[in-house]
Automatic annotation (TrEMBL):
GO cellular component, one term: mitochondrion
Gene Ontology biological process terms from the UniProt entry: carboxylic acid metabolic process
Family membership noted in the UniProt record: Belongs to the aldehyde dehydrogenase family.
Name of the protein described by the UniProt record: Aldehyde dehydrogenase domain-containing protein
A GO MF label: aldehyde dehydrogenase (NAD+) activity
Limits of the Aldehyde dehydrogenase domain: 77-539
Entries under PROSITE patterns matching the protein: ALDEHYDE_DEHYDR_CYS, ALDEHYDE_DEHYDR_GLU
InterPro entries linked to this entry: Ald_DH/histidinol_DH, Ald_DH_C, Ald_DH_CS_CYS, Ald_DH_CS_GLU, Ald_DH_N, Aldehyde_DH_dom
CDD domains with a match to the protein in the record: ALDH_F2BC
Record organism: Oryza barthii
One Pfam family this sequence matches: Aldedh
């Protein structure tokens, strides 16, 4: 299994939040939408052009069982203090997968107490960095050993294609853990010269108890992005999972303890934002909070952190990433890459290339070919071979996306293809494309987080730079050109945290990820992520009769 996982791809990717999903299984959604030709409702035969058959088939039985549904506190799986549970649902059907313990403020208190005791009195921060590294390496081995089980849980709970989870995301978790294991014994301070007879040390110390809130779109990857650097630096953790996808983090945390992690070092509380999430962000004994999710909720987390004990905050938030295609592009290649940039993971990516800017000279050709590619996209049961797109996460997100499609139609954008649900069960949506999109339309300004591509036209480099930057977000961007000077101009002008040139969603353990503006604070992954979990201390000692200074 380990060898097979090592051969799998590692280029990948990164939401959350805090509201309770409805338990409705199959929302009925009206389809009276205006098409490009001005007609209303569904065009005859339009559903047959998408993979309706795959959606209509009986769902495949997941090849895994759910064994962990309780909270993990102080090394033990326990019920919530209230005894309450909540349902986690299969997005393919809206039906129950399992009842999961619902943590609230009392459970956060219990978890923080365990993490504080483990940090102040336990072996973890006093363990040699090499020993911490060995535990993380053993954990990576166990992730590989259980690759297929974890991938099946992720697909079942989230709806992403199983091949994506098994061949890309779970192997990336193992890679990330090995990356941070490598850092554990290479975190060191400095000895700096002073203007006088003093010995000056600069120490990098663990920050203490780290609170972490992860999203539902990449649950296990975000677990690794946050837990990995925190543990490498010697901290303890209280992690709140997204209420939509609690299962994979509980399974992974069990493997962490199997790898030798001491009790209380990682605690996992499943629950909802207004209760568990707010309690964690405002807890007086939490030293640091890291959150991935929406910008609006990120602001709430930041306020709660400031109003409590002014804890350190890292935020990875929303995006409305421009994908800029110049007139020298190979149109066929550009269409495929822009399609991937938007539709990957059902469009549920904070860095999705959701504003596709295309030069006017190739605009019409691009739109026609983008339409043809969308119509070929295979939508269906994510456990089925060959499926590219599974269901959206839940009915709340499903209905939100359909509302945005209606906003696009009502604002005068041209609905090229899609625009409706697929099938009558679960949360499947047709791959949707709008052309003639204007900058002032909501579909061009707001994060949709779904399979909706907005194609905008431009005619000048300076114009597209100005328009691409005219956003509250600054998470990522894509540039597609054969001209090196054009690429260099764009990469320096775009106010975003990541620019992909002639590629998209290339993620690596060493590449930092984070945003400008309202897309967040701080960086995940790479050496920069370690700074989130370290304190800097200066120690100054007088030196008498120094032989040198």
């Amino acid at each position: 299994m380990a060898a097979a996982a090592a051969r799998r791809g590692s280029s990948l990717l990164s939401r959350c939040l805090l509201s309770r999903p409805s338990a409705a299984a199959s929302p009925a959604v009206p389809s009276a939408l205006r098409r490009a030709d001005g007609t209303q409702g569904l065009l005859p035969g339009i559903l047959q052009r998408f993979s309706t058959a795959a959606v209509a088939e009986e769902p495949i039985s997941p090849p895994v069982q759910v064994n962990y549904t309780q909270l993990l506190i102080d090394g033990k799986f326990v019920d919530s203090a209230s005894g309450k549970t909540f349902p986690t649902l299969d997005p393919r059907t809206g039906e129950l997968i399992a009842h999961v313990a619902e943590g609230d403020a009392e459970d956060i208190n219990r978890a923080v107490h365990a993490a504080r005791k483990a940090f102040d009195e336990g072996p973890w921060p006093k363990m040699t960095a090499y020993e911490r590294s060995r535990i993380l390496l053993r954990f990576a081995d166990l992730i590989e050993k259980h690759n297929d089980e974890i991938a099946a849980l992720e697909t079942w709970d989230n709806g992403k294609p199983y091949v994506q989870a098994a061949n890309i995301e779970v192997p990336m978790v193992a890679r990330l853990m090995r990356y941070y294991a490598g850092w554990a014994d290479k975190i060191h301070g400095l000895v700096v010269p002073a203007d006088g007879p003093h010995h000056v040390q600069v120490l990098h110390e663990p920050i203490g108890v780290a609170g972490q809130i992860i999203p539902w779109n990449f649950p296990l990857l975000m677990f690794a992005w946050k837990v990995g650097p925190a543990l490498a630096c010697g901290n303890t953790v209280v992690l709140k999972t997204a209420e939509q996808t609690p299962l994979s983090a509980l399974f992974a945390s069990k493997l962490l303890h199997e790898a030798g992690l001491p009790d209380g070092v990682v605690n996992v509380v499943s629950g909802f934002g207004p209760t568990a999430g707010a309690a964690l962000a405002s807890h007086m004994d939490v030293d640091k909070i890291a959150f991935t999710g929406s910008t609006d909720t990120g602001k709430v987390v930041l306020e709660l952190a400031a109003r409590s004990n002014l804890k350190s905050v890292t935020l990875e938030l929303g995006g409305k990433s421009p994908f800029i295609i110049m007139d020298d592009a190979d149109v066929d290649h550009a269409v495929e890459l822009a399609h991937f940039a938007l539709f990957f993971n059902q469009g549920q990516c904070c860095c999705a290339g959701s504003r596709t800017f295309v030069h006017e000279r190739i605009y019409d050709e691009f739109v026609e070919k983008a339409k043809a590619r969308a119509l070929k996209r295979v939508v269906g049961d994510p456990f089925k071979n060959g499926v590219e797109q599974g269901p959206q996460i839940d009915d709340e997100q499903f209905n939100k996306i359909l509302r945005y499609i209606k906003y696009g139609v009502d604002s005068g954008a041209n609905l090229v293809t899609g625009g409706d649900r697929l099938g009558d069960k679960g949360y499947y949506i047709q791959p949707t494309i709008f052309s003639d999109v204007q900058d002032n339309m909501r579909i061009a300004q707001e994060e949709i987080f779904g399979p909706v591509q907005s194609i905008l036209k431009f005619n000048d480099l300076n114009e597209v730079i100005k328009r691409a930057n005219a956003s509250q977000y600054g998470l990522a961007a894509g540039v597609f050109t054969n001209n090196l000077n054009t690429a260099n101009t764009l990469t320096r002008a775009l106010r975003v945290g990541t620019v992909w040139v002639n590629c998209f969603d290339v993620f690596d353990a060493a590449i930092p990820f984070g945003g400008y503006k309202q897309s967040g604070i701080g960086r995940e992954k790479g050496i920069d992520s370690l700074k989130n979990y370290l304190q800097v201390k200066a120690v100054v000692t007088p030196i008498k009769n120094a032989a040198w200074l």
